[in-house]
């Protein structure tokens, strides 16, 4: 996982519209980059809708929000359309971005272990450096903590 002060690992991925999004496109702006396990599941939906509901507060501060999960562009499109999400969701089916950011981890649930995304949010400075890391995110109250930090 990158550490605070380091340059954020580069990202080039397709969003829900099939458009290539590069992290470098946002130099000069603060970026909230949040990683989540799966589209249209309870915790992930609550998190995405939280960012949606406070979207104007983020954009008023000049902040760009990007979500990343291993889901493909088609699943992202359905999720965005269903919940009216006003920001890009980046597809990472090969887990390249998740691995670069250290969020693809072994998880344990009901005594079984499997690999998955550990819900994590990075705040990236306008200079492209990691400014803040929210690891092992609990969705309740998370959006307001991120908003207060930017």
CATH class: Alpha Beta
Going by CATH, what is the homologous superfamily? Glutaredoxin
Instruction: Decide which structural class fits the backbone.
Output: alpha/beta
- Sheet with most strands: 5 strands, mixed
CATH architectural grouping: 3-Layer(aba) Sandwich
Which percent range fits the helix content? Answer: 25-40%
- Range of strand content: 25-35%
* Distance between the first and last residues' Cα: 21 Å
Give the SSE order as H and E letters: EEEHHEHEHEEEEH
| CATH-defined fold name | Glutaredoxin
Number of helices: 5
**Rg, Å, rounded:** 14 Å
User: What overall form do the CA principal axes indicate?
Assistant: globular
Q: What count of structural domains?
A: 1
Find the count of extended strands (DSSP E, 2+ residues): 9
Give the overall average pLDDT.
95
Order of the strands making up the biggest sheet: 5-4-3-8-9
Uncertain stretches of 5 or more adjacent residues: none
